[in-house]
């Protein structure tokens, strides 16, 4: 068991950004928030259907003392992920004057990962200086981005989410 686990969110693309007529084509990025942490993609310029295909890593808040007892470990992880189950996506539009407008919010819940397709993934382990493989449940989703400023009810974000190093099957993710 390890305290070094990560929620990995792959922000793939946004479809059908429909800004107010005064804006036309936009520069946008996605900000992802989970567990008091926030990360963002790069800005895609002049595109109302931007593709990002970026991986964002959020360290899961685990404590070393939980590893002493497997039952305590499972209880604490389920408790932790149950109270921090919501991941927020914010579609941000960059203005010409270095301002940012939130142009839509969508949500994903960690519990949606449970029961998803098992996939083999790999990452480069810095401490071992080599590529490591692991099996995890990967959720592929699409969420509606809702905003009072958008003229479209069809703006969607496509994403994937999984945990780097999977959890034991007893972990329900909330």
Mean pLDDT: 85
| Unreliable stretches covering 5 or more consecutive residues | none
The radius of gyration is 18 Å
Q: Which oligomerization state do the chains in this entry correspond to? A: single chain
N- to C-terminal separation? Answer: 20 Å
- Going across the major beta sheet, what is the strand order? 4-1-9-8-7
- The count of helical stretches stands at 1
Biggest sheet statistics: 5 strands, antiparallel
Q: Tally of extended strands?
A: 9
Helix content: under 10%
Counting helices, strands and paired strands, the structural category is: mainly beta
How much of the residues is beta strand, in percent? Answer: over 45%
Helix/strand order, N-terminal first: EEEEHEEEEE
What general outline do the C-alpha atoms trace? elongated
